[in-house]
Amino acid sequence: MTGSRRVMRLKERNRKAQEVAETIAENAVGYVRVSTEEQASSGHGLEAQREAIEAFAKSQGYELLDVIIDAGVSGATKPEEREGFQRILELAEKTSVLLAR
Predict the structure, then answer these.
(1) How many domains does the chain have?
(2) 3-state SS assignment for residue 39
(3) Mean pLDDT by 10 residues, the chain (101 residues)
(4) Residue 90 lies in domain
């Protein structure tokens, strides 16, 4: 009888893990960045990037949790030193999909 209960517990644990994995896979976070302050202030590229990410997320059936923007941040800046990318890392626990342009 102990074996049966153990198997039932394992099956329940696997079912719950699968539910969590499916929920995470349905969520996405977007990330957009432009390098210069001029691009950031003019909005050049940011809105187009955001729209592309939103359209792709919709086409794939993802729930887009947020679109994070790093405006005027050079590509030479390490990702972990970017304010927006720090938010991406915080949201990583809630999603397994990162959409970037």
Answers:
(1) 1
(2) helix
(3) 80 84 77 77 77 92 90 86 89 82 71
(4) 26-100
